Amino acid sequence: MSDQTPPPAQTTENTPTVASVEDMYMKFISVMVHEIRKPMTSIRGYVDMLDKRLVGELNDMQGQFVSTVRNNVLSMEQLVTDISDISKLRAGRLKAEPKMDVAKNILLEVEKKFAELATQRQHALEFDIPQGLPILNIDKTRYTQAIIKIVDNAIKYTNPGGTIKITASAVPEGLQVLVEDNGVGMQPEELARLGELFFRGDDEIVLNTKGYGLGIPIAMECVKLCGGRLFYSSEKGVGSKFGIVVPAMS
Predict the structure, then answer these.
(1) Given CA atoms 226, 229, 234, 240 in this order, what sign does their dihedral have?
(2) Residues 110/148, Cβ–Cβ less than 8 Å
(3) Could you read off the pLDDT of 19-29 as tens digits, one per residue?
């Protein structure tokens, strides 16, 4: 009995192509995001009114309930935004909008954003932003988003009392921002899976911390959109390093 090669699959007008499947996926994400955002916006509006006591005073227990609902609404809003962003980034639907900007100003905004959270978690948040950093011609929104996602992960996955250090420096390629922590770290097999959507490690602190495995994929895509590169290393029980290098303004 001779081996036979099966005939090539026949395509018809009804056979979905990769492009059509991606288009359907993007339409689904767009509709889903829109439909979820509508009720979430309404819920947040009413919760904010309660939180600001605009419809009457609340006792301590009621205030705690409102605070819990508000925090969960904010978390869901961020998840919806992240799903929308990663879908658009990977589909090439977001285009870079570069403008001249000062690296120091961007990093100071990031420092301000995380100062309170770091204090709450008893972390030492150290920023080393020297003078004379190169001027950037960059999409500030996506560049800042990438740094925020990485710093956020460092804060979340470092035990209380840890140290997160952010160092900016001029390099031959342009500007480098290095984020170092002494958090839980990752095994080589976990490190190899960075970039997979929804992937999270199995360390106890990771499992007990709210997250969806979208931060690093979004950071990777944002850095790529900015014409830069992202590098990283990690050791279990020691900590992680993430670096972003983007070109300076020529």
Answers:
(1) negative
(2) yes
(3) 666 677 667 87
pTM: 0.81
Domains of the chain are 18-90 (1.20.58), 99-247 (3.30.565.10)
**pLDDT tens per residue across span 143-202:** 999 999 999 999 999 999 999 999 999 999 999 999 999 999 999 999 999 888 888 888
